[in-house]
Write a structure and sequence with these properties.
HisB_N; Histidine biosynthesis bifunctional protein HisB; EC 3.1.3.15; HAD-SF_hydro_IIIA; Ribosomal Protein S5, domain 2; 375 residues
């Protein structure tokens, strides 16, 4: 069975890099935050590890080999004591001006691996702190992760890298631009995080945040809309973009729960919405939602609002939000709400749908939940 390899830079990636760029004493040895738990997670996911490092002038009078060997050996011992072993350690000792074919980002050091057909190259990756590590990955034709540092930038930490590679997360980024709105949505269905939503409409932000928070997925949504005209385009287009992101992140939908309709409060008196399945109480209000990622958009709403607005959200657009979400997500949703307080009713609708989404999006294996062979 083929195994993926994580090709890992050393200084600045496994261990912190000092100001003089040489870890030539035990006192300079510091591990990068989160590296050991992340590598343990990757090890358990089947990854092998190979160090690929440029060590300028190693073995010269300016950087004696014996100064390097002690801290390096201690680093390797610490990793091994934690159950992390490296398949290989590849070190280039040239200077940049030498233009050696073995110096990153050139592929000379890793060339024997590139000829190995037993490696799972689709899952293999390079992790480093410099742009040269990213270029090495490009030259190898595999994925790159640049660690976030003050000196070289980058956007990843070790926990994020382990999540991206070991969990095979279902993620999507959607950019939707029209004459009325510019929207960027990012979702990660396999990571819980505090939602970040900015639409220019405070109460709508709060409601969309409920979908991520109670839906159990990471959600980021930014919108610049024509609010100087009215709210309609912003509210509708954000729902359309979010539905598109959910559909894209689900991929072929293998392993998902597909349906969301678990009863939470079945014994509330005079609660007509109980026929729909998932019941969510909020003080005097009861909302219920049942949904199916069938690929066939359909929306049924049973409820009404007395107020024209709750905050800056027109209540007439609440059903439209969910209808738009269904349209692009390929979602069948039945939603009902009863109560006296319109604020409670709107919020309960979003929370009920979110809780149904949590069940439907959950992975339960690799089977496709359909007798048709497609969703």
């Amino acid at each position: 069975m083929s195994r993926p390899i994580l090709f890992v830079d050393r200084d600045g990636t496994l261990i912190e890099e000092p100001g003089d760029f040489q870890i030539d004493s035990y006192a300079k040895l510091r591990f990068v935050e989160g590296v050991i738990p992340a590598m343990l997670k990757l090890r358990d996911a089947g990854y092998d590890f190979v160090i690929v490092s440029n060590q300028d002038g190693l073995g010269t009078d300016a950087y004696p080999q014996e100064s390097f060997d002690g801290p390096h050996a201690l680093m390797m011992q610490v990793f091994e004591s934690q159950g992390i072993r490296f398949r290989d350690v590849l070190i280039d000792t040239s200077f940049p001006e030498d233009n050696a074919p073995t110096r990153k980002p050139q592929i000379g050091l890793v060339l024997p691996y590139l000829k190995d057909r037993t490696i799972d190259w689709a899952r293999s990756a390079v992790v480093g702190d410099r742009p040269t590590d990213v270029q090495l990955a490009d030259n190898m034709g595999i994925r790159a992760f640049q660690l976030r540092t003050a000196q070289f930038g980058g956007e990843w930490d070790w926990a994020g890298i382990a999540h991206a590679l070991a969990d095979a997360p279902r993620t999507a980024r959607v950019e939707r631009t029209t004459k009325e709105t510019r929207i960027v949505v990012e979702v990660d269905l396999d990571r819980a995080a505090e939602p970040r939503v900015r639409t220019g409409l405070g109460f709508y932000d709060h409601m969309l945040e409920q979908l991520g928070k109670h839906g159990g997925f990471a959600l980021s949504l930014e919108c610049e809309g024509d609010l100087h005209i009215d709210e309609h385009h912003t509210i509708e287009d954000c729902a359309l973009a979010l539905g598109q992101a959910l559909r894209q992140a689900l991929g072929d939908k293998r392993g998902i729960g597909r349906y969301g309709s678990d009863v939470v409060a079945p014994d509330v008196p005079d609660a007509r919405p109980t026929t729909y399945g998932l019941n969510l109480p909020m003080d005097e209000t009861l909302a219920s939602a049942a949904l199916d990622f069938s690929g066939r958009p359909y929306f049924v709403f049973d409820g009404e609002f007395r107020r024209e607005r709750v905050g800056d959200l027109p209540t007439e657009l609440v059903p439209h939000v969910f209808r738009s979400l269904c349209e692009t997500a390929g979602l069948n949703l039945h939603l009902a709400v009863r109560g006296d307080n319109d604020h409670h009713k709107v919020e309960a609708c979003f929370k009920a749908v979110a809780r149904a989404l949590r069940q439907a999006l959950a992975r339960e294996g690799r089977e496709l939940p359909s007798t048709k062979g497609a969703l």
